[in-house]
Amino acid sequence: MTLPDLNQAKRELDERGFVVLEEFVDQDWLAELQRATERQFELEGAAAGSEFKTESGSRRLANLVNKGEVFQRVVADPRLLGFIELALGTEFKLSSLNARSAEPHNGISQPLHADMGAIADERGYWVCNSVWMLDDFTTQNGPIRVVPGSHRWNQLPQDVMGDPSEPHPDEEIITGPAGTVVVMNAHAWHGGTENRTDSSRTALHAFYARRDKPQQQYQRELLSEPVQASLNADLRKILALDDSLNDEVTKNCQQRSGFLK
């Protein structure tokens, strides 16, 4: 695995809004994540994703930090955090860790959106997502589309497009082999596309926010007491479990998505 140097990655994040990191996840860890994710879908059944939101045409899981050490390793991976820092600066926290699996022949594309419906403020960018490809992303199985540079426009697609579900003339499709991670300035307009194949397409979404903004999923409230007691200081910090500012800005904030109601 050869990752881009941080200067190159920062240029890509600044100019295009995303950077693609192939072979980020080694094969052993990838297989462990694949097994753990599918097992969780089986365990939760029809209730999967209910801690947050569900989505027609896709299976979802939420609150994954609460569901195993293998997921906790994702959100605290120091290599990943170095790339998140390029977009958000040093003061950030986990907002949520979810899984999304586009169902076979689901007939649905997500509308273009910015995560949390976020627009950069006077301090700059405040949301950054990472997409962990647990399956190969091909042009046919529901890959991500992104409009490069749209994170710099300070607009949301629903405010300027007649139908954000329609193709955008500047959008690009991101594909890659399983084990690839895409780090994305989540102000960039993006969305999952239709899965036209006979197999599901699964990814993890480790989503981060600047420390002065609300978490998408309030970790202190969602994580069980035994899980919280088991976490080391680094994980507690990235989850903002002992952060009074996070409690203030998140506790009474309604859960938000860029497009799910």
Tell me the layout of helices and strands:
Elements: H1 6-15, E1 18-21, H2 27-44, E2 58-61, H3 69-76, H4 78-88, E3 92-102, E4 127-133, E5 144-146, H5 157-160, E6 172-174, E7 181-185, E8 190-192, E9 201-210, H6 219-222, H7 225-230, H8 233-238, H9 244-250
Antiparallel strand pairs: 1-7, 2-3, 3-9, 4-7, 4-9, 5-6, 5-8
Helix pairs in contact: 1-4
Can you describe this structure?
It is a single chain. This protein has 9 helices and 9 strands. Helix 1 packs across helix 4 (78-88). It starts with 5 loop residues before the first helix and ends in an 11-residue tail after the last helix. The strands form 2 sheets. A 6-stranded antiparallel β-sheet has the order 1-7-4-9-3-2, with helices on one face. Strands 6-5-8 form a 3-stranded antiparallel β-sheet, with no helix packed on it. It has a single domain (6-250), classed as q2cbj1_9rhob like domain (Jelly Rolls). The protein is globular. With 261 residues, the protein is of the alpha+beta class. It is 28% helix and 19% strand.
Computed CA radius of gyration, to the nearest angstrom: 17 Å
> What's the number of domains?
1
**Widest sheet, order of strands:** 1-7-4-9-3-2
Chain-averaged pLDDT: 96
**CATH structural class:** Mainly Beta
- In CATH, the architecture is Sandwich
Q: Percentage of helical residues?
A: 25-40%
- The beta-strand count equals 9
Low-confidence stretches: none
CATH superfamily: q2cbj1_9rhob like domain
The largest sheet, given as strand count, sense and whether it forms a barrel, is: 6 strands, antiparallel
